[in-house]
Structure formats: structure tokens, C-alpha cells
Amino acid sequence: MIDVLYFAWVRERIGLSKEKVETSAETVAGLVAELKAREARYEAAFADVSALRVALDQELSDFDAPLAGVREIAFFPPMTGG
Fold first, then answer.
1. End-to-end alpha carbon distance in the chain
2. What pLDDT is stored for residue 81 in this prediction?
3. In CATH, what number is assigned to the domain containing residue 39?
4. Which residue in 42, 61, 72, 77 is a FRET match for 25, CA 20 to 30 A apart?
5. 13-63 pLDDT per residue, tens
């Protein structure tokens, strides 16, 4: 089981701030594919992954990163400074 956290418009589109997900995916991209296959709200949230960032166990990562040993994954839009 992995804790999946959603922030900003990702959370708004999915309707959840977090959930526990059981996955057989080996990478972040694989998990995204599983989530998108669930229903339309996930498809909408992950329609353009180039507009998203991902953190694994609170460290920025890439969508091709392996999920082995990961306990928490967070999806969020890029942040701007100011």
C-alpha cells in the first residue's frame, strides 16, 4: 500500500486530498496509468503529466522513478516563487 497525496488542482479534479492505493505498478508512470484507468476524474487530473510534479517520500522525483520501497507519493503542480 502506498499513501497517495494530491495537491491544488489535482486534488480538486480527483475530489480527494489523499488515499491509500494498492498497486502492482513498478514506476510512478505505471501508477498514473492505473489511476487514469479507474475513472474519468483521475483521467482528467493526469491528462497532462508534463504539468505535474511528483515527490516520493517527500523528495522530488521523476515519473520513471521506481516505486519499490516507497511509502508516500505526492502529485502537485509546479510551484512559483514570489
1. 36
2. 55
3. 3.10.20.30
4. 77
5. 999 999 999 999 999 999 999 999 999 999 999 999 999 999 999 999 999
Q: Is 14 helix (H, G, I), strand (E, B) or coil?
A: helix
What does the block give as the cell for 41? 476524474
How many domains is the chain built from? 1
DSSP H helices in 1-82: 8-14, 28-38, 40-45
**Residues sharing a CB contact under 8 Å with residue 59, sequence separation 6 or more, in sequence order:** none
Return the number of other C-beta atoms located less than 10 Å from residue 50's C-beta.
6
Contact 29, 10 (CB under 8 A): no
| Domain presence at residue 81 | no
DSSP-derived letter for residue 79 is: P
